[in-house]
Every structure is written in structure tokens, then in C-alpha cells.
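Friendly challenge for the regulars: who can give me the C-alpha cells for this chain first? No prize, just bragging rights.
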Amino acid sequence: RSEIIHNSGQLKVLDLRLSDAGIYTCEYGTHTVSISLHVFKLTISFNGNFLPNEAPELTLMQNSSYPLPDLNITLFNSNNNTVRAKLLQNKTRQKYVLTLKQLEVTDSGTWICHVHSDSPLINHDITFDVKVLGFQNPGLERKYATVDSTVILSWRLNFQKIKWREGFTGQLNWKQQENAAPSELLDFNITARGEQHETKKSSRFRFEIPESKSASTIEVKLHKVNFNHSGQYQCQLAYNGRYAQSKIELVVMKVSANPVGPLPRGAKMTLICQVSSPLPSNTHLCWERVNGTQMDIKRSKQHEVKVEVNVSAAGLWNCHLIEDNDRKISLHYSVEEAPVWIRYVVIGGSTGGSVLVFGLVCLCIISGISWQRRRQRAKRMARARQYLLENKTCQCQQ
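First reply, four minutes later:
Bragging rights claimed.
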């Protein structure tokens, strides 16, 4: 594992090991030069391949021909920021074990382990790679949509960005409520060469996988969204029996009116704006009349799923879903005034209906009286026939 470079008088040692530490002496004629070789060995758990929320463990070992120095170890992440670590040191100073905090996707990159000693003087940097495979999405993302709109849900994987060289698998599940059984929508696998393959698993849940989506992205497209599409969409990846996941919660909003249709003059209508699931505390619904006043604004209370407003005149109303003073989505409802002839038809229909009901009542009363009279007459005739039958005699002239 060694070779001598004669032109420069150098000794090259390949595949350096801890056991190679010691004193190396070069003799040339009457000249003798000795060099002490101090060897460090740094290892990282899982070979530097992690998933989010996993805590790495670093092990630094040293060997030297002299008494081993007491080392001061400092870690720097890929952003050149100092990283706090819990140090476990054995009594012989030969082995140092450092436990780091839980990692995030943004921690991927080249890290530096700086080793320092005053006696002997050591200032040595050891570089090592940290790769955190995961999603570039936040852990839980909330997305809002209106009824009948088209929604694209996507999860961006970072395997190409960090040059991940091992294969892994994953799947996309959906459940409408937190405690409901999940339904698998699709599964995917990524090869060690970075090739991505997806397979649709659900036939009753209508969605499509866009062909034009960007690389290293898991994506589904929902057409004509309704309340049944709301819920949690969980994308999960698996690597060596370990898992990472990212969720998107889809909240759907719709507006309606009671009663439906044009508003007759003098009548009232209730406009209803509602969402498919409770909103977080920093989010609310708000009805607002276009070109209206402050009196025409109605807000939902905390965690309410709907807000109603009573309307007595025609106009255009907007319902906004507001998160931290930011309008996420809006739906409008146009209240139209009923034409005059419709009002007359309604009045006439009401009057005609009243007259018809009155006539039916009178007819029922007359029919009832007539039926009662016929019944009484029939009873009298029956009694008379019975009397005649019971008292029938024959009188003869004597």
C-alpha cells in the first residue's frame, strides 16, 4: 500500500489506516529525517444517508506514536454554521462519539469536522457528506380550492438535487378524515440511477398523473373538485425500512343560496359559504358585498365551517377565505331581482291557490252535509221498513 516517489523523495501510503500511525524515518547517506504520522478516522452512521428527523452519530478515532492528545472538536454544516453536538469521550482519548440534532432536508451537503489540539499543535479539517432524502414541501401543507375547479397536488423530492445513489420506493394515500382508513392512490419507485416509475392504484377515485410534470415530482391532478375530494393526501417514501412523509390537506369551499333563484321584491334570501373541514385559528370566511358598506360584511367565528348572510336586495356578493390577512380563494354569488311579471305570477299564484283551497274546503263541507243528510234519510227508511215488518197484521171483516 505504499510507493516511493524517487524524484521528490516522498513516500506515498495508500488506503491509510489507523495502524499506519507511527514514526517514519528517511535515511540518505549521513542524513536522517523522522516524521511522526498522526492518523484520524471519522465514520458517520448510515454511511451519511439519512431521512428527515434522524439524528446522526459521528465517531472520531485517532492513533499516534506519542501519547494521544486531548482533542477539541467543532462541527460545521453545509452552510458553514456551527453545529452543536453531544460529546461522549472515553478515558483513553482514542475514541470520540458525537450525537447530533435531528436533521432536516436543508442540512444536505458537505460538512466539516475541525480537530484542534495545542500539544502537539493540530488544526485539521475532515470533510464528510451528509445526504437527507426527503420532500422539499413542508411537513404539512394546506391547499384551498373552490367547487368545480381543477387542482394539482405535487410533492417535490430532492433525490436528484443531493445526487442520491440508492433506490427507494413510496406511495400516495388519501383519507377524508383523520381517523378514516386510507386509500392508496398510486405507488412509485426510484432506481439507483434516478429513474422514476409510477403506477395508479385507485380506480374509483378519479384523478390523473400529468405527463408534463417536472422531474423528481409526485403529482396528481383533480378535475371538477367537490367536497368528496377534500381530506389529507399523504405522500410517503421508504428507504431501508425507514420512512419519511409529507401531507397536503385539501380544503374545498362552495357557496349557495336559500331559497335558490331570483329574489322577489320584499322577500329575503340567505347566502351560505362553507368549507369541507374546520379552519385553523388564523383562517376565517368572510361575506362581502361588492360596492357595499361595512354593514355588508359578515365574518365567520373561529373554527366555524360556514358563514351565512341575509340578503333583501339584489347585488353581487363575494365570499373570501382569508389566512393571516391573505385572501387564498374567493367565490362570488350574484343575487338577481325577480322581474315584475314573476312577482305578479307569484301573487296571482298565491291568490289563486288561496281561492282554490277555499273552494275545496267549501266543496268538502257541502259534500259532507249532503252525505250526512242521505245517511239520515236512509236510516229513517230502514227503521220504517223494520217497523212495518214487525207489525204486519191481517184484519178480516166479520
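The helical segments are 340-390. The chain has three domains: 2-132, 140-251, 259-335. Your move, everyone else.
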